[in-house]
Amino acid sequence: MSSILQSLEQAFQTAFSDLGYESGLGAVRESDRPDLAPFQCNGAMAAAGQAKKRGEKANPRDIAQAVVEAVKDHPAIKTIEIGGPGFINIEPTEDVLSERASELSGSENLGIERVDPKTIVVDYGGANVAKPMHVGHLRSAVIGEAIKRLYRALGHKVIGDVHMGDWGLQMGHLISELEIEEPDLPYFDETKVSGYPEEPPVTMDDLARLYPQASNAAKNDEDRMEQSRLATAELQAGRAGYMALLNHFIDVSVAALKVGYGNLGVEFDLWNGEACVDHLIPEMIEEFRRKNIAEDDDGALIIRVEEEDENKDVPPVMLLASSGAVLYHTTDLATLVDRKNEIDPDLIIYVVDQRQALHFEQVFRAAVKAEWYNRDQLYHAGFGTMNGKDGKPFKTREGGVLRLEDLIKIMNEAAETRIEESGIGAEFESSERKEIARKIGLAALKFADLQNQRLTNYVFDPERFTAFEGKTGPYLLYAVVRIKSILRRAKDEGVSPGRVKISDPTEAQLLLALDAFGRAVTASAEKYAPHILCDHIYRVAQSFSRFYSECPILAEDIPDDVKTSRLALAELTLRQLEKGLTILGIETPERM
Ligand code: ARG
Q: Atom 3 of ligand 1 has which residue's CA nearest to it?
């Protein structure tokens, strides 16, 4: 099944190659001037350029003319014209549009092209045990979930791993702080090596309290800091009581994180963290040494990763600090070993704040040096910051660190206000209205995040995000719900979708938008750019809106075959909008 663009392209490529040019010059794309024609082929100019280089006489308009002669009888082409120096403008026939509509309606994938399946790991979320989440974790969760679903939609096997931060100084902070508060707990008895209680000694609230308490105390007190460092080192050396505590901390945190991410509609396949690869580190270090990749440097163990002919200095990877402690680089490298052993992925995508770009550059270079992976198997999909109106990374009103629950609450409230204002769902029960507000709030937040180019910073503005007009999540939910209600009414009236016959220009334009879905999904995945799919969904919603205002569906004076055709278009639009939104991780209500 190929899209309209693809079938046109095939004809153009054949024409160019029959005329003795590269077939690639027959590339067809959506026109920059849709007022002239929906598609264009601009290969004639390049063909002329190439011919001139070979010393032939060539005029782009003549080449365009020859191509037009070759393709003009193609059944998909309604009009074809040459503009300017040799642009070829193409308009497809209504018949081919109608056929394509039926094809899309009958296809489960709605035009998404399945590819050769690869095994892909998406490393996203990245919350830290006990440390509160910040906006970077939110963006990682939202963007990572979309990227995971994009690749799944293309047919790949995709494994989402939360890769929790659970191995480092924060653990030493927690352990030592707990020891100060409750020195009599069995975990601190050095003579004991097993038989610890099964019940965790702390709750999530305790962890949320202990961590800042310790880190604040350590800030101004070198001795207190030393205690945390020592606890970290003993933990890393495998002290039994500390390991038992670590496992409790992880369990308690994971339970809380599952709820937090769950509320956001984000699901992980693996709840791995840094700690679970610790056992791989000694052998990994051994391998680095054996391969002569690691070297001692002032008591520390490093890997030099600068490359020749580069302008930016990439400092060495730190495998072991001079204290012997393992670092962020070390756990990420050990995780690469673990993933190679357990999953052997074709590609690993790290959805992590762009401010960690250098870290990943270093880690990737070391992994390539060790010949575990090729460079093109490792990709850091960085992202910019969500800022407050002051232009600084968003914080809560109190200026404190962000908690996911608070953010969701803010969005919920903004959505509730909007719903009040617009009178939406006034007739529904309050539980349904609450559920609608929840979905609107989340859609607003996620769409506002995903529609930006990944790397740009943007401003958190709940009011703007929840608007029902413009390029927002709620506008899209509204579009979906409107079609659902049309379909319900049709059902009540006994009208069912039939064969599509495109006749109105707004129908043609809607179908052309729907035809672009497969391309949007592919490009969005390949470029790790969910905003491309956002643009597409918005375009479809707008096209539907134009179509619906020109082409009523259930009005009385409409002939049956027109009704059923328009209804089929509406149904197809709904399926595509819902599929697209699901890929973005956005849920839609039944009504609102
Ligand atoms: N826990 C880290 C942080 O809060 C993010 C982890 C990202 N993933 C990774 N494989 N390093 O910054």
A: 126
